[in-house]
Amino acid sequence: MLFVFSGCQRHSEMQTEGVSFLQGVWVQDSIPQQQQMLNFTLHEFTFTCDSLYAKMHMHAKTKTMPDSCFNNGSWTEYAKAVYVLRGDSIIAEGIYTKENGKQKISGCYKSGQYLPRFKLVYHDKDSVVLENKFDSRPIILRKTKDITCVPKKRWEM
Question: Is the pLDDT of residue 125 over 70?
Answer without folding.
Answer: yes
